[in-house]
Amino acid sequence: LTVRTYKPEVEKRVLASIERMAKGEAMAAGAPKDPLVKITHAANATYNDPDLTKRLVTTLRGVLSPANVIEIEPTMVFEDFAEFNLAGIPSADFWVGAVDPQKFAAAQKSGTALPQLHTAAWAPDYAPTLKTAITVESTELLELLGH
Amino acid sequence: MSRTIFALLSVCTLLALNTAAQSSATWTTPSADQVNAIYPEIESLYFDLHRAPELAMHEQQTAARLAERMKALGYEVTTGVGGTGIVAMMRNGAGRTVLLRTEMDALPIEEATGLPYASKVVIRSDSGTSVPVMHACGHDIHMSSWIGTAKLMSTNRNRWHGTLILIGQPAEETGEGAPAMIKDGLFTRFPKPDFALAIHDSAILPVGQVGFTPGYALAAADSVDITIYGRGGHGGRPQSTIDPVVIAAKTILALQTVVSRENNPFDPVVITVGTYTAVPRTALFPTK
């Protein structure tokens, strides 16, 4: 099974609960021995430094317009970019929209699901995605190195 | 949509010119003309990378391609950092050190987009099976834009100062790549960055939009394998057995309360039981 969390203390408690419950059920059934619980830590939670994020958002909004730089919910997928912030380096990971605007509008209207990342049908609208990605990266770097 | 962006870009440039000295306006962002001028070669690189995906920790050709481009752009390039990782550095006077990461690995997925540049790559795994490979997470987008950004930063180096560290990281999909590069001296053999940046293509935002999430943005993940022991026996004599399948079923239900009853509802947790196997799988009661 897999466990996804954000806070390290929650992760620790959930893993301990899983082991406790597995042992409890085995004991209740009179199992000959305790279950073997093997935990493999796959990734840490990615934390975007709030001050750095705010600074970059302000700059990006000046370039791409406030309406095009929007706050979105966290997601429970994982990413090893977490390691940089954990190493004490303020870090920020930004999402760059990659869905064809017509397909996006049609999906919004009909309520159908769009192809997601990690699927055989994922095909970013590459030309505007690449141009926006280059603009975002260069703008961020110039914000941090250009003054 | 791209036209809208560039129209906005030029509006912003004009605003900046009006409010600041002319020289400082050029520090803000590359012009649409600059991005458009480098775009054809970036698009061509994107197609090349998309057609030639490589799995985690096997990104040799990808890394070689990126390293060659970075050298041509004037970066000091170190290869083989944490496996196939590359570090491209540009020292440009005193100032901050900033790191920008791209991932390089693809996924074991058979592409079904039907696009003219679709991946047809199938590799033979270590165990001898055929594995299709596809850039299904957009790391090809990230690598291509990373090279585009490297080019703009190199040609505009009179507009910034400090040290730029661009890393091509292996094995993001397995979670191994970043720890491997750090363990191999990313912060000791090279200057430790003051800031680290990355982007990711989004399948939930239309082009032209950029999304951000301050604080916790992506989850920690643990994989838990539980082996439950019982006592095997004949299906017609349940009284002589302890059935681990029933114990496992009760455990799976019990685990639902870890989220619903033990956890603060404002702390997100997902527990997913993905597979469940009894050994041996016969009419007998299994042993585990």
> Could you give the count of β-strands of chain A?
5
First-to-last CA distance of chain A: 48 Å
What oligomeric state best describes the polypeptide chains here? heterodimer
Q: What is the share of helical residues of chain B?
A: 25-40%
- Structural category of chain B: alpha/beta
Extract low-pLDDT stretches of chain A. Answer: none
- Cα-to-Cα separation, first versus last residue of chain B: 57 Å
**SSE class of chain A:** alpha+beta
Enumerate the strands of the largest sheet of chain B in spatial order, edge to edge or round the barrel: 1-2-6-3-7
Short key terms for the protein model shown above:
heterodimer, A: 147 residues, alpha+beta, 5 helices, 48% helix, extended, B: 288 residues, alpha/beta, 5-stranded mixed sheet, two-stranded antiparallel sheet, 7 helices, elongated, disordered N terminus
Can you describe what's shown?
The complex is a heterodimer of chains A (147) and B (288). By secondary structure, chain A is an alpha+beta fold. Chain A has helices at residues 8-28, 50-64, 82-86, 101-110, 126-145, and strands spanning 2-5, 36-43, 46-48, 69-71, 91-99. In chain A, helix 2 (50-64) packs across helix 5. The mean pLDDT of chain A is 96. Chain B is an alpha/beta fold. Chain B has a five-stranded mixed β-sheet with strand order 1-2-6-3-7, with helices on both faces. Chain B has a two-stranded antiparallel ribbon with strand order 4-5. In chain B, a hairpin with a 5-residue loop joins strand 4 (122-124) and strand 5. Chain B is elongated. The relative contact order of chain B is 0.13. Classes of the chains: A alpha+beta (147), B alpha/beta (288). Strand 4 (69-71) of chain A pairs parallel with strand 8 (210-212) of chain B, so a sheet runs across the interface.
Structure in a nutshell:
Chain A has 147 residues and is an alpha+beta fold. Chain A has helices at 8-28, 50-64, 82-86, 101-110, 126-145, and strands spanning 2-5, 36-43, 46-48, 69-71, 91-99. The longest helix of chain A has 21 residues, at 8-28.
